[in-house]
Amino acid sequence: MASAISETITTNGPSENNNLTITGKIHTRVRLATKSDLHHIYQLFYQIHAYHNFTHLYKATESSLGDLLFKENPLPLFYGPSVLLLEVSPTPFTQPKNNKDEGFKPVLTTFNLKFPVVEGQVEEFQSKYDDGNDKRDVFIAGYAFFYANYSCFYDKPGFYFESLYFRESYRKLGMGRLLFGTVASIAANNGFVSVEGIVAVWNKKSYDFYIDMGVEIFDEFRYGKLHGENLQKYADKQKNEGGNC
Questions:
Q1: 126 secondary structure, DSSP code
Q2: What range(s) does the N-acetyltransferase domain occupy (predicted)?
């Protein structure tokens, strides 16, 4: 967490240019995403593609993401594609009043700020989540996306940690540690044996972050992917041969 330079909370309300400035303290909530978050998830997924200059590869739509993340008959909690959202607010969160059993109790934390944080997209990223508290000053800051995976090395599933992303205003505040740590805590407390994923070697800050969080890097392995036209060749081959593999 960032260290405090002020014990006061100063909030400049949304201005005509759609900005909100938070100084002193910022309050956070990590919760499981719901269908009401679909538009924001779509936007955040697009932003991480833009960050990596991969927008030309982004094929998802809100409808297709809804089918992926919020199925009518979902897998058991955390076995299917799962998204945790980190929300921020200039005022404290309280536990939900609506008594919804979503299988995960929100994690509430407060960060002391070294510098002001500007929420520059108040309307675009205002949370639509209804927890029964009628709290309106809540904004989506980032997400973690993960799902269960399996390996012949273990007799239990682990987590494949697909991505972690924060909007620019909320980076370098210690929130990444909170969000990744929450995923790791879910894994450890629910019988999953690992949290694994791809670590970009070119991104030193990201690489060092995961090392510091306890992730072990296996240099003897390289990431491989069969996709696109090369994958489609196998479907065409099966059709042409008129049988199964």
A1: B
A2: 83-236
Below-70 pLDDT ranges, the chain: 1-17, 99-101, 237-245
Which residue, chain included where needed, has tokens 């697909």? 162
Q: Which of 138, 126, 143 is nearest to 26 (CA)?
A: 138
Residue 234 annotated as catalytic: no
Residue-wise pLDDT for 133-190, tens only, equals: 889 999 999 999 999 999 999 999 999 999 999 999 999 999 999 999 999 999 999 9
Which single residue is written with the structure tokens 């970009």?
Answer: 200
Sequence-distant (≥ 6) Cβ neighbours of residue 177 within 8 angstroms: 209, 213
Pairing of β 158-166 and β 195-196: parallel
| Nearest residue to 132 via CA among 92, 94, 97, 87 | 97
DSSP label at residue 75? P
Give the Cα-Cα-Cα angle 73, 74, 76 (nearest 5 degrees).
130
- Return the closest-CA partner of residue 164 out of 148, 180, 149: 180
The most distant pair of C-alpha atoms in the chain lies apart, rounded to whole Å, by 72
* Domains with residue ranges and CATH for the chain: 10-236 (3.40.630.30)
Active-site residue (options: 147, 165, 170, 210): 210
